[in-house]
Amino acid sequence: MRAAWREVTSAADAWLGSLPAGALSEMLPPPGPKRTVGDAIQRVTYHYWFHIGEILAIRQFLGHPHRPEFVGDLEARAPYRAT
Fold first, then answer.
1. Is residue 37 a contact partner of residue 25, using CB atoms and an 8 Å limit?
2. Do residues 24 and 41 make contact, with C-beta atoms less than 8 angstroms apart?
3. Given this model, what pLDDT does residue 49 score?
4. Could you tell me which of 25, 20, 13 has the C-alpha nearest to residue 78?
5. Are 34 and 27 in contact (CB under 8 A)?
6. Mean pLDDT throughout 58-81?
7. What single string gives the DSSP state of each residue in the chain?
8. pTM of the predicted model, to two decimals?
9. Which residues, including other chains, have CB under 8 Å from residue 83's CB and lie 6 or more apart?
């Protein structure tokens, strides 16, 4: 599963890295709700974080040790960049 996850995220990183800034404001094609590419990426990111929170809550409930408690040094690794 981890190998599949790495493969998918690597492909997604390459695709996201190739998007011009203006593409994030474009509307997604039908079918589906009307939203921009940027809105959809943001929605998927928040959905992902939601499930990570659920998984960590289950691990805490089960008493698993060595759970991550903080996302790390975001400012150094992924600083905000105005477009």
1. yes
2. yes
3. 87
4. 13
5. yes
6. 81
7. -HHHHHHHHHHHHHHHHH--GGGGGSBPPSSS---BHHHHHHHHHHHHHHHHHHHHHHHHHTT-SS---S---HHHHS-----
8. 0.64
9. 21
The alpha carbon of 24 is separated from its chain's Cα centroid by a whole number of angstroms, namely 15
Output the six-digit token pair for 28.
Answer: 């997604």
Tokens 């805490």 belong to: 60
Residue 11, token pair as written in the block:
């492909």
The CA-based angle 72-74-78, given to 5 degrees, is 140
| Percent of the chain surpassing pLDDT 70 | 95
